Amino acid sequence: MSGMSTLFDKLWAAHEIARRDDGEALLWVDRHYVHEGSFNAFGQLKARAAGIAEPGLTFGIADHYVPTRGSRRSIANPEIARMVRTLEENTAVHGITLFGLDDPRQGIVHVVGPEQGLTLPGLLVVCGDSHTSTHGALGAYAFGIGASEVAHVLMTQTLWQRKPKRMRVSVDGRLTSGVAAKDIALSVIARIGADGATGHAIEFAGSTVRALTMEGRLTLCNLSIEAGGRCGMVAPDETTFAYVEGRPYAPKGAAFAQAVEAWSTLRSDDGAEFDREVTLDAADVAPIVTWGTSPQDALPIDQSVPDPAREPDEARAKYLRDALDYMGIRPGTRLTDIAIDRVFIGSCTNARIEDLRAAAAVLAGRASKVPGLVSPGSSAVKRRAEEEGLDRIFRDAGLEWGESGCSMCVGINGDLVAPGERCASTTNRNFRGRQGPGARTHLMSPAMVAAAAVTGRLADVRPLLAGRKV
Amino acid sequence: MRNGMEKFTRLIAPACPLDIVNLNTDQLIPARFLKIPRAAGLGKVLLHDLRFDADGRERPDFPLNRPAWRDAKVIVGARNFGCGSSREAAVYALYDYGIRCVLAPSFGDIFAGNAVQNGLLTAVISDEEARLLMSMLAAEPDRHVDIDLEQQTVTCGDRAIPFAIEPVRRTRLLNGWDDIALTESFRDRIAAFKTADRMRRPWAVPAER
Q1: Cα A332 from Cα B59, distance rounded (Å)
Q2: What is residue A2's predicted lDDT score, i.e. its pLDDT?
């Protein structure tokens, strides 16, 4: 060892309570989020008649099952209503603060945590949701866990973990107009594959990442899991500190100054070693869309989908055939020739205020050729968007302006893409049936979804931005 | 429930090949079934939309629907098995169906972690070995595989293939250990860490609002 540490090494070391001979370490958990889907973990607690070690460090947020269209006063489906009610009951019984259905702070957990100042640099953050990697954008060690681990955290405020390997993804240079953090993330996943970062903690670095806003960094870290990464992170800097300052649960006054001093040391030392390095030139990143059934099936918008007949590797050819068959796309079709049936703007990946502004910049004064739903990332984002008049732009374009929740990204609240329908979506997974049985999902940035809406097909947003302020 | 986690030592059972790269947890259990309580059993919705068509009829060509593999306790999978969502119900569905071991070239990290918590063995073999096993099983579907966790081998016919698993996970599975009980034995160290940490990182607790 050189004595030089990566950002991840520093975060790991700060949370290590004990290490066993077999290499597993017991880590302290600073922040834990639970949602409706955490009911299995609460069930495990009940079965053990166990209590919660640190109720003040766990926060409940209703997001996965909440209605995002129409009234939220009553939930028609009794099973979905039960899921929301069970979270209310479990958090009440254990003295956990809940941002429930009617709370003005409600929203998607990975939007709300940073927004409320609950997620901070230097913290270890967990949640029973794979997109917990999002929170790493603030310089936190944040990762998704399963129900048994959620139960373990509730009971002990700790977790046993094996230290992942370290990967650095460096992006340098200036992004061109119409290219966003989503395009960087999908480019990385296309390059290294859906399992390219398995077993690794990713640090995103380089001048392009430094120049990203917090919203952009959150999108980038959110998609770490789609490359198989255990977590993704960006070293905290002035952008981070400015974002955190003044948020409800963030340190105040002298405590904030003291925190900033500590957070400023959270960066990889010069010369620190990574197990794997990936570099990307920002100038090479173009607006990108997925064509298949894994986020790795991503291509720049000016390309055509692959042709399995031209693929020499038989296993790869089968993979391509299966994906194109499910997606209902003929081999070799130009991406811009693919017509869509609907759009969705939402999810923990791309529903923050900046995402809505980017989509609205394209949609302003234009009509969508297909129906679609806009679901803001949090109730606070919704209010802000309405203050800025963005809701009017979406409505005038013919899109539905909804409430905040996971909504049509995962469809468990009942907001589904119909079988066989093709959806241009700002979400994170184009898996078979992800947005509903038989649904076909194309992932892309908010601006690219807006471009797809106004043209009715997958489209390059860049010509649509000519002469517009973005 | 981890309290009663079954030990895994050796298993001789039918094995079903599933040659699907990036078989994510949304496929293992579609999200609409996540509301089902564990007590109801999730085996019937395992791989639901691949096993059944839109009208709920079995797809006869899907491997798990073939007579020889219907009662499989082992799955031989492809790269990145169990990627995607952290839903532990993906493991419950496999386990409740009767699957006790998945052999694959790689696994999603969260899925593999969830598996060990529930007594499901995730054994890593190479791409070539996975292909070999799949072709042997395709040629002779009734063949049983012999999985020996002590020896870390899977035997199929006259082929014995070593598999990899993290030593910690192997130990846990062999003993049926529960890590809550283990963590309890660290109670004093956790308390000492917390006290020191509150001095060292006072900013790490949520501010009073």
Answers
A1: 29
A2: 56
The string of pLDDT tens digits covering residues A38-79 is 999 999 999 999 999 999 999 999 999 999 998 888 898 999
Nearest to A128 among B79, B83, B86 (CB): B86
| Helix H or strand E encompassing A191 | helix A181-192
Q: How many CA within 13 A on the CB side of residue B102?
A: 29
Give the whole-number percent of chain B exceeding pLDDT 70.
98
Distances (CA, A) of B122 to A199, B84, B101, B111, B174: 15, 16, 6, 9, 13
> What is the arithmetic mean of pLDDT over A297-320?
97
Report how far residue A213's alpha carbon sits from residue B167's, in angstroms, rounded to the nearest whole number: 42
Strand runs labelled E in B30-116: 74-77, 101-104
Which pair of structure tokens corresponds to residue A255? 């405590």
Query: Is residue B1 scored above 50 in pLDDT?
Result: no
> Do A69 and A197 touch, CB atoms closer than 8 A?
no
Reported as type and span, the H/E element at residue B198 is: helix B187-200
**What is the residue-wise DSSP string for A425-452?**
ESSS---TTTTSTT-EEEE--HHHHHHH
Rounded to whole angstroms, how far apart are CA atoms A189 and A457? 23
CA distance B202 to A140: 16
Q: Chain A neighbours among B 1-20 (CB < 8 Å)?
A: 1-3, 20
Global confidence as pTM: 0.97
For the record, the structure tokens of A104 come out as 């003005």
pLDDT of B4 reads 58
For residue B209, the model assigns a pLDDT of 61
- H/E stretch holding B49 reads helix B48-51
- Predicted local distance difference test score (pLDDT) of residue A22: 84
Amino acid of residue A358: A
Window A:339-368, CB contacts with B under 8 Å: none
The yes-or-no verdict on residue A1 having pLDDT over 70 is no
> Do B52 and B58 meet the contact criterion of CB atoms below 8 Å apart?
yes
Interface confidence (ipTM) of the complex: 0.96
**CA atoms of B187 and B181, how far apart (whole Å):** 10
Task: Enumerate the residues of chain B whose CB falls inside 8 A of the CB of residue A154.
Answer: none
Q: In what order do the strands lie in the sheet with A141-144?
A: A97-99, A58-61, A31-34, A124-127, A141-144
